[in-house]
Write a structure and sequence with these properties.
The complex is a heterodimer of chains A (97) and B (243).
Chain A: H1 8-29, H2 37-56, H3 64-88
Helix pairs in contact in A: 1-2
Chain B: H1 2-9, H2 12-15, H3 29-64, H4 66-73, H5 78-104, H6 107-137, H7 154-159, H8 167-203, H9 213-237
Classes of the chains: A mainly alpha (97), B mainly alpha (243).
Chain lengths: 97, 243
């Protein structure tokens, strides 16, 4: 599948979407969303990352083996983040000294 | 007879004794391309884990010293950060168009797009250098000369409890700021070098629709560096901006 040539139209569309999302995240940061400001910014960033990986890095058109490696990378990153946060975010649950 | 026919249809460099774009240990060009793409993604996986460690450290300290991180983040120029994000996204488009031009064998377009990508990358680095210089002037570089004087900044003092912000914790934010943007910029500099090499090879006509793996893989690298910035921008510039 890797000889698949992504049409330029798709690249331009993704580029426009990335520009709009950049403006959106900058605007959203100036609005008071309470505790949601951080999650909103990260959600938009994840969306932009997904667009770049699927289309600019054409993983969408790649072999299953490439998919497995990409997903494994994020799975291990997820382990790193969740297990560490599992520690730091729950330390105050018990009031041991 | 049949041998000379084969020679006539082979590319010049294949007839000259090497086997053309297809290495002998691969079945087909497609398999060769897939293998190199998988190899590049394995490398990018190590890069994801490398930057993941930086992001994790940042996250832990941001959650435990939120007020100081928010105050320090507010001293960064959000418009410059957003502008630089747009520059980098444009460079990703030109990189993607380079890959397209190489795949369809348009040498001239490939050269233009590679040149544009390099130019946009240099613009990004220039702006980054300007921002770092600003930090230097403001004494916001962590170390013996670090000074946190923003309690005198009326815009910040009005909304935030400026007195509650621990200067040492703002210094911590700037340590992360320089480590993360510095490591990102270092990757950009390497990317510029790789692009210069690609430009040189493309100039000599090394890339054809049959063989353009270096353009493809350096493209993957460039997009990865773009993704790192896509996260750095909101995390460093956009904390608690609504005040």
């Amino acid at each position: 599948m890797s000889e698949h040539i992504v049409p330029r139209r798709i690249y331009v569309l993704v580029w426009v979407a990335l520009l709009l999302l950049t403006l959106l995240t900058t605007f959203a940061a100036t609005v008071d969303l309470g505790v949601l400001n951080g999650p909103v910014a990260l959600t938009i960033a994840c969306l932009k990352m997904t667009l770049v990986i699927l289309f600019f890095m054409h993983v969408k058109y790649s072999t299953r083996l490439t998919w497995i490696i990409v997903l494994a990378a994020f799975f291990w990153l997820g382990i790193l983040l969740t297990l560490t946060m599992n520690d730091y975010l729950t330390r105050h649950f018990l009031n041991y000294p | 007879m049949s041998q000379s026919d084969n020679l006539a249809t082979m590319p010049a460099h294949a007839a000259a004794g090497n086997h053309g774009p297809l290495q002998h240990h691969f079945e087909s060009l497609e398999q060769q391309r897939d293998a190199s793409s998988v190899g590049m993604w394995v490398f990018l996986t190590t890069e994801i884990m490398f930057f993941g460690g930086l992001f994790l450290g940042y996250l832990v300290y941001r959650l435990s010293h939120f007020a100081a991180f928010a105050a320090a983040s507010s001293t960064l120029n959000m418009d410059i950060g957003a502008g630089n994000t747009i520059v980098l996204i444009c460079s990703s488009l030109t990189m993607a168009l380079s890959v397209h031009a190489a795949a369809v064998g348009k040498r001239k377009t490939l050269l233009w797009m590679l040149g544009l990508t390099m130019f946009l990358g240099l613009v990004f680095l220039g702006v980054k250098g300007y921002e770092w210089h600003e930090k230097y002037v403001e004494h916001h570089i962590p170390g013996p000369n670090f000074v946190w004087h923003e309690e005198n900044n009326p815009a910040l003092a009005a909304e935030r409890h400026a007195a509650d912000v621990n200067p040492g914790e703002t210094e911590l934010f700037f340590s992360f700021y320089f480590a993360m943007t510095g490591m990102h910029a270092f990757h950009m500099v390497i990317g510029e070098g790789l692009l210069a090499w690609l430009f040189f090879k493309a100039w000599k006509g090394a890339f054809t629709p049959a063989y353009n793996t270096p353009v493809e893989n350096i493209g993957l690298y460039w997009h990865f560096v773009d993704i790192v910035w896509i996260f750095l921008f909101p995390l460093l510039y956009l904390i608690d901006r609504h005040h």
